[in-house]
Amino acid sequence: MKKIVAGIRKSRSKGCIISFAFCLFASLPFLVIGCAATQEITKDNNPALLYAEGANLYHDGDYREAIDKLKKVMEDYPLTPFAEDAQLLLADAYYASSEYSDAASYYATFIALHPGHPRAPYALFQKGMSYFRDVLSIDRDQAATQKALLAFTDLAAQYPASIYVDKAKEMGIFLKKRLAEREFYIGNFYFKDKKYKGALVRFAEILKKYPETGISDKVLYYIGISYVELGENDLARDTFSTLITQFPESSFAGDAKDWLSDNHDG
Length: 266
Hints:
Elements: H1 2-38, H2 47-59, H3 63-76, H4 81-96, H5 100-113, H6 120-132, H7 143-158, H8 165-192, H9 196-209, H10 216-229, H11 233-246, H12 253-262
Helix pairs in contact: 2-3, 2-4, 3-4, 4-5, 5-6, 6-7, 7-8, 8-9, 9-10, 10-11, 11-12
């Protein structure tokens, strides 16, 4: 009898557990529906949709709105894959809107955080282009020129197989010539002011740092004249001889030959 009662109690207990479980699972759809109703998935709380909207705004040319959306992806969802993509597109949006300093900053951050990313070479090239867009005339500060040249040089060194390397090298040649012309501009300022020693320092810097920029013949000529003005005829003679030997077709070679002919005895 006791065994039967115990069995009935055990059966009732199991029945209660089963009944409770059935009720719980039966109510789950209503709970899920209730949650969905109170927290609807929208573009403002879904990183994929938010990024897609930012990308669409960018491609439509609405860069300011795109920047706002992409920043929200980065700030609110930093651990998602969309934050990585948003960072690069954000840099592109700043670049497209001519805000080159901000663009360079975001490209630089992307490269620092993702150096092995397939688009890292592109980011580094665009970093250089961002600085390039801020390059000033030779009578102005050339800090942007230096930064652009460094970015293009780093690209060729770090990603030699990149499709951007040839263009980076081409840009590097242009920028080196710009820096050489800047040095000559300063050297010529000293030269005109008859500060020939100061001029020589600047001219020598060009031959040392930028020997392949196409102005070495002009630089050698002005070095020679500076030595003449300082009374250093032996050094002037050596300089003019070098000019004639290395650049026989230069427009400065004729004047150098004339001076040597007139001062062959020292």
